[in-house]
Amino acid sequence: MTVSLADIEKAAAVLAGKIVRTPLVPAVGLADDWGVDLHLKLENLQRAGSFKTRGAYVMMSRLPPEVSHTGVIAMSAGNHAQGVAYSARQLGIPATIVMPEQTPFTKVERTRRYGARVILKGETLGECAAHAEEIAAREKLVFVHPYDDPDIIAGQGTIGLEMLADMPDLEVLVVPIGGGGLIGGIATAAKALNPAIEIIGVEASLYPSMHEAINNLPASSAGQTLAEGIAVKQPGVLNREIVARLVDDIILVDESAIERAVQLLIEDQKLVAEGAGAAGIAAIMTNLERFRGRKVGTVICGGNIDSRLLSSVLLRGLARDGKLVRIRCEISDSPGVLAKIAGLIGQCGGNIVEIYHQRLFYNVPVKLAELDAVIETRTPEHAREIMDALTSAGIPTKLLGGATPEGY
Questions:
Q1: Is 98 exposed, middle or buried (0-12, 13-18, 19+ CB in 10 A)?
Q2: Which of 22-26, 208-212, 300-304, 391-395 has the lowest mean pLDDT?
Q3: Which end of the chain has the lower number of beta carbons within 10 A, N or C?
Q4: What is the rounded distance in angstroms from the CA atom of residue 326 to the CA atom of residue 367?
Q5: Whole-prediction pTM value?
């Protein structure tokens, strides 16, 4: 079974007034820096925080009336869970979501907030899937697949309709790939409307499952990725056929690029995106020559990132950019030295965030001490100025963490 433009247009009619008609906005800051006419489809503003609501709503809206008494079941650790739970509430259908036992509390509570019954079972999504199938058989529940279903694919394809309705002259679409429902739907719609448009998929390099599947390569997906929303080991069978037929290329992006993309969206565009949602930005950022001078659209497919993880990404970004550094000073263990160091850092315009004063361990001479300082700076060059000032004052200093200033 395949999905057609007509199927996607029917899905759009089903979704009219039921979901957010998300905007396609120019990425002014990034476009100016990169020389790319870049536009962002903001599915992070969608109800439940991701594009998943589209496909889930379309699929469940077409279920027979008796399902409103029995219910549906899904297996997910994140966006699919919330999309199904939200859509089920809107349609008056009982929903059960099986999630891994270690799912962050915030994701569990968000899913419950939409009225779903949440069952925590298993350590992996594979174990969750097996348990969900057992419950579905026992309670006669309809299983809502996250991506390998024609109604799901048609629902996600409405994003492509909206992007080309808003900007018919887009030359390239850059779309994250997990199981393939998103790119399968978008590629079907976009290529039907404009056969010349280029469709480029993006996968995390740790989870290149679609790239491997369509190229008959051995499976290698494994590891911890910031883009957990697209960390899929087995892409959908329906979607593999669509991707092989309609997608022009797949770009693999590493973890540092994904992390950097999340940071750039916050700093330059004032947009919160999860790792999967920023994957398109990571692909463009690491392949600028391919996109420079072209009119490009990418989907910010979700914004459900844990607050603590986002905080870590931003702080690591400051360190990477040389705006947060950690230095170590070797000092005499005598009164007034700490005040002298603080004064020198302040005179140079640095802001001390944390101080660690070490004098007890055996590798520090008894009359000396080590002082580690975390300092907020303007640039790596500014960090170098601070370190030069300390060294000139007779305080040997070395860099422990942050962007390395030239010469250190």
A1: buried
A2: 391-395
A3: N
A4: 23
A5: 0.88
